[in-house]
Amino acid sequence: MSDAETTVAELRALIRHFVEERDWRQFHAPKNLAMSLAIEAAELMEHFQWISAEQSREIAADPGQLAEVSDELADVLCYALAMANQLEIDLSAAIRRKMKKNEEKYPAGEFRGRAK
Question: At 100, which helix (H) or strand (E)?
């Protein structure tokens, strides 16, 4: 199934089922999940550590590299979803709320095309 066919709720349920089937909820304190998420994010960053911005864009054209990056990104999202499950955070609401804050902090007219 693709992103267009899958809801956040379905992904959360997939993670919840995986965790419950292994009795891992006991290990999923928010602290542990945050640490695991950071570790997985670092593993994702390793794929980009010594390459240029342009080379990083070329990963999409290399099926082997893309698969490795895809796995690491999936790990990051799995831990984020596990944390949302543990803390009962509505991710859709949280993202919309955060984007509203970002829009106010970085007005498009003022920040278009600027990194800072």
Answer: helix 91-105
* 37, 80 contact by CB (below 8 A): yes
pTM across the whole model = 0.92
- Can you give the residue range of the structural domain that contains 60? 3-91
Q: Is residue 87 part of a domain?
A: yes
pLDDT in tens, 14-57: 999 999 999 999 999 999 999 999 999 999 999 999 999 999 99
Query: Nearest-CA neighbor of 30 among 98, 79, 71, 70?
Result: 79
Checking if the pLDDT of 104 tops 80, the result is yes
The separation between CA 4 and the C-alpha centre of its own chain, rounded to angstroms, equals 17
Residue 105 belongs to a domain:
no
**Contacts of range 90-96, beta carbons closer than 8 Å, 24 or more positions apart:** 91/8, 91/12, 92/8
- Left, alpha or beta for 52 (phi > 0: left; psi -120 to 50: alpha)? beta
Domain assignment of residue 98, yes or no: no
Question: What's phi and psi for 63, nearest 5 deg?
Answer: -55, -40
